[in-house]
Write a structure and sequence with these properties.
The protein contains 15 helices and twelve strands. Helix 6 packs parallel to helix 8, helix 7 runs antiparallel to helix 8 and helix 11 packs antiparallel against helix 12.
Length: 372
């Protein structure tokens, strides 16, 4: 344990965030020792709200460069470590408590703290989609942001992987802002890094420009550079593109292509399972869903679809085995899925259907019967 707790600067860039900024700042109460807000051109009451929390408000002329704005915010920080958030991010109460404990105990040899960024939860509050981001960084290392859009911090050294979650509260909206920045940079002849290519492909995909997205993703992969996680994600996007275009052969090809970059992931096994399930090839579908249940989750900061590593393949195995006339196996996997989602209506429906139609008795019923 450190003799003294570290000090923290919270650095944020904002624009027209009057509906979210107070919620964000309230959620981190007690964590930052200073709050630095860089406004990139608000025309609403954002600044007036922020003044209730800090007087360190700076104006930054927007130049279509997120990294430049974030680096300017970081340059104003004076504390030991810098925490960054967006206005529609929050710390839940449990995560705020964990963060305060971290603040009091973090060894100063740590250069950065990586935290899960939770983008989606299901109707039961369980995390369904998240990935890691370096949220807390040592100021003296002068880490810099890179990228005009979809920017990232270039960190190195001792990185602590934490279970403190930052939760995104906004809804995903397709905006043409990022796409326009990419296209403007392209028109200028600005060279794209591998990460730029990958993110440009994502913007094209979200705008349903599937043919253009395919070209950009393939350019990214053919260059042989970029992170493994981005390569795997590009394969996933390519399968989605070809599925949307109705090209089943290419969809299958890019599903399998992902295995060239890393060991099979449950997400791709579930994709393959669904591919064969749609084709009513239930034996093949069961194979891939079954494989998904046997894999060990990788220690990665990349995107993770938790359903594929927990309940989803079991629920789909229930469907496959029922179609194959193997109702006992169908029931077994539905029960496993139920351990993850005991109140899921579909899982409860499957349970009742199998018990009623095929006379399968649940272990729970047998136990209660013995007790009687």
């Amino acid at each position: 344990m450190e003799d003294n707790p570290i000090t923290i600067s919270l650095c944020m860039i904002v624009r027209n965030e009057e509906n979210t900024i107070a919620r964000c700042l309230d959620s981190v109460k007690g964590i930052p020792d200073e709050i630095i807000i860089v406004d990139t051109g608000s025309t609403d009451n954002t600044k007036e709200i922020v003044r209730q929390y800090t007087n360190q408000i700076y104006d930054f002329e927007w130049i279509d460069d997120f990294a430049a704005a974030r680096n300017f915010a970081f340059d104003q920080a004076t504390m030991d470590y810098i925490l960054w958030l967006d206005a529609d991010d929050v710390l839940l109460e449990v995560d705020c408590r964990k963060f305060l404990d971290l603040k009091g105990n973090l060894a100063t040899l740590i250069d950065a703290v990586n935290m899960p960024y939770v983008l989606k939860r299901d109707e039961f509050g369980v995390v369904t989609y998240s990935f890691g981001r370096n949220r807390l960084v040592k100021r003296s290392n002068n880490f810099r942001w890179i990228g005009t859009v979809h920017e990232y911090i270039n960190v190195y050294g001792q990185i602590l992987k934490s279970d403190i979650c930052v939760t995104h509260t906004g809804t995903f909206k397709v905006s043409d802002r990022n796409l326009k920045i990419f296209e403007k940079n392209q028109a200028k002849g600005m060279p794209f890094s591998p990460r730029d290519l990958y993110n440009y492909g994502n913007e094209l995909f979200h705008h349903q420009f599937y043919h253009r997205a395919i070209e950009v993703y393939q350019e990214f992969l053919n260059a042989g550079q970029g992170s493994v996680e981005d390569k795997i994600s590009a394969c996933a996007r390519l399968t989605d593109c070809f599925q949307q275009l109705g090209d089943k052969a290419k969809e299958l090809e890019w599903n399998l292509k992902s295995f060239e970059y890393a060991n099979p992931r449950a997400e791709f096994c579930c994709r393959l399972g669904f591919y064969f399930l749609r084709a009513e090839q239930y034996e093949q579908a069961a194979f891939w869903y079954g494989l998904a249940t046997k894999l060990e989750k990788p220690d990665t900061r990349g995107p993770m679809l938790e359903a594929c590593w927990t309940w989803l393949p079991h629920l789909q195995l229930c469907v496959c085995y029922d179609r194959l006339g193997k109702q006992e196996l169908a029931y077994k996997h539905n029960e496993i899925a139920r351990t993850f989602r005991p109140e899921d209506p579909q899982i409860i429906h499957n349970k009742n259907y199998l018990e009623r139609t095929f006379g399968i008795k649940s272990v729970e019923k047998e136990v209660r019967g013995d007790e009687l």
